[in-house]
Amino acid sequence: MHAPLLNALGAPLRPAHSQIPADIACAADYERHAIHHIEAHAWQHIQGGADQNLTLTHNRSCWDGLRLLPQPIADLGGAHTRTTLLGQDLSSPILLAPVAYQRLVHPDGELATVRAATALQTGMLVSTLSSYTLEEIAQAGQTAAAEMGQGARRWFQLYLQPDRAHSLQLIRRAEAAGYSAIVWTVDASIKRSGFPLPYGVEAANLRGMPSAQHTSPLQGPILFGTPLAQQAPTWDDLCWLRAQTQLPLIVKGILSPAQAHQAVACGADALIISNHGGRVLDGVVSPVEVLPAIRQAVGAHTPLLLDSGVRYGTDVVKALALGAHAVLIGRPQLHALATAGLLGVAHMLHLLRAELELTMAHLGCASVADITPHVLWQR
Length: 379
Ligand code: FNR
Fold this sequence. Notes:
Elements: H1 30-34, H2 40-47, H3 54-64, E1 83-85, E2 88-90, E3 94-96, H4 109-119, E4 124-126, H5 134-148, E5 154-158, H6 164-176, E6 182-185, H7 227-230, H8 235-244, E7 249-254, H9 257-265, E8 270-273, H10 287-298, E9 304-306, H11 313-321, E10 326-329, H12 331-362
Parallel strand pairs: 3-10, 4-5, 5-6, 6-7, 7-8, 8-9, 9-10
Antiparallel strand pairs: 1-2
Helix pairs in contact: 4-5, 4-12, 9-10, 11-12
Bound molecules: ligand FNR.
């Protein structure tokens, strides 16, 4: 007989609930439930930040340090959260960030997440490292859309593979499966991780391809001069990618205003300002701190999305007030998925949407276009 799997509290792993736990009042509440439902090593992998967690904790304090200025006298008739990004309609400026290997926390993994995203008409970014194939996820999304009579956008997140022919295969597969944008992640080609995937969880999209080394325990040879160092993204990669697809091309993982400017000059249609949820390098600036400088560097019209530490509807409004068009949610989707599967992810998204509407109402904003710097208290 196998020993039972343990969670990070040292107790046997609990399966996901079939109902929403009664004490969940906001999206962030899913985290304290999720610890009971996720195996201990997977929990550390998901929750962890780089080194001392300086970036991870800084991300939250940046959001918490901003103050909103209520505007209670306002006409909210006809108010809504809809927005348009890259010519695509979205029901709100909240999207699901690409998060790898979702079967780590629930057997239905990304299939449950895409069904929940479809139900809530929420855009989802599907990772190169998804644990179901991008075609299976697209199919699950399309079936759910047909059943529910509503759809949602799906974008494909690309990690470049060592061989460009394999990267191109992934792009063509994403185009064929109906993904409506390619998101190239540039900030995690080189990162430390010693997390071995458990049996039954794999990078389903990369079957038959030589595995790109995305992480190094940094034992043995030092980085420079190794194949891992050669995987660092280059401007030439961006030019190459731009030439391969007609789909909108979004670069994820930019923090420097100068690199933001150059990425747009090289043909990026939009940027995701991100420090990868504090997972890659410690002591890094937070996206929300650099957002105004990046907005200035790229001009008024380039769509800017942002993630890392977004947990509340108030955070969404703060990001939009400083010049973002939308935000992405990372870890909370795994917390909700582990706690209550599809239902949990749908509920988490609903709570965030409700918080966004409530915040907009207090700030006198009848649409996301009304969210401008005037809703922030600037000393
Ligand atoms: C990620 N992230 C990520 N990003 C990406 O571009 N491709 C990927 O495959 C993954 N995988 C992944 C796994 C896990 C477990 C985490 C926690 C994160 C980063 C993700 O898209 C996003 O940038 C951060 O998660 C945002 O920060 P928060 O919301 O988790 O604080």
